[in-house]
Amino acid sequence: MVHAIRIHDYGGPEALRWDEIEVGDPGPGQVRLRQTAVGLNYIDTYHRSGAYKLPQLPAIIGTEGAGVVEAVGPDVTTLKPGDRVGYAPLIGAYAESRLAPADRLIPLPSWIEDRQAAAMLLQGMTAQFLLRSTYTVQPGDTILVQAAAGGVGQILCQWAKHLGATVIGTVSSDEKAELARAAGCDHPIVYTRENFVNRVKDLTDGQGVPVVYDGVGKTTFMDSLDCLRPRGFMVLFGAASGPVPPLDLQVLAAKGSLYVTRPTLFSYVSKRDDLMASAADLFEVVHTGGVTINVGQTFALRDAAEAHRALESRATTGSTVLLP
């Protein structure tokens, strides 16, 4: 019998239930996938809590996974049973087996392990579009990464350093400062005892940085703006501390004609060609050693509630993988 983690109502981690489900045969354009690893991401907590509403309940949450194709639909020619694939973003990942659209699946190179794939696709392709498209980081840039020891944070630090940037990052503890430093962060700032705005200004001779990558949200947003140089880019890509309140756009003028954007991965990879190009860029930088994917911890899929508690209490480091 196949099991999945579902929510029947929005709520805290206790809303996650280990349910029996039925997975039928794949229809046109679909494959049936036996999942071997599932990625844990902050967006999962938004879906669980109702911060991001789902089309209907009950629902299987999760947006990233890897596994083996078990069966293909009648018109699928690009994949066959036995192929290893990964995906992101695609809702419904918290399951032992699932149906998935073939055109959203990414064939995995032989050198990528399933756990690594489930840990890297959503966070890695997020880092890819942030660094390569939203703001194109150039050699010599000095950038600020909020939550530099987190999953996306560590990838951003490594990749930006690989691109020739100087990386400033915020972390909550000395332990996480060491993790960020190991990931290429030149200047970790422990924000629990240091004012990161003042420190960023000191490190940039009072100029500020051209871009801030902020996945924290509410508690850091306004201070992140103060870290920018005139005409700098504020890139808000998450809200781990809660949503940012409405902003008076005159603030952006007063702080130096700043730019603010709230990008999402799906907007950058909604077309298959863009999805495959993003994945290829990620695979290349990992294969050549520019980025190392750190699986900081694993949980059994049925223990997803425990994993959510750890994530929301900031007890995790790097990426987290759920094992069906």
From TrEMBL:
PANTHER family (alphabetical): QUINONE OXIDOREDUCTASE PIG3-RELATED (PTHR48106), QUINONE OXIDOREDUCTASE-RELATED (PTHR48106:SF13)
Organism, as annotated: Azospirillum baldaniorum
An annotated Gene Ontology molecular function: zinc ion binding
Keywords: NADP, Oxidoreductase
Enoyl reductase (ER) domain residues: 11-322
Gene3D superfamilies: Medium-chain alcohol dehydrogenases, catalytic domain, NAD(P)-binding Rossmann-like Domain
Protein origin, superkingdom: Bacteria
Enzyme's top EC category: oxidoreductase
A GO CC annotation given for this chain: cytosol
InterPro entries: ADH-like_C, ADH-like_N, ER, GroES-like_sf, NAD(P)-bd_dom_sf, QOR-like, Quin_OxRdtase/zeta-crystal_CS
Record-given protein name: Quinone oxidoreductase (NADPH:quinone reductase)
PROSITE patterns the record matches: QOR_ZETA_CRYSTAL (PS01162)
CDD domains in alphabetical order: QOR2
EC number assigned by the record: 1.6.5.5
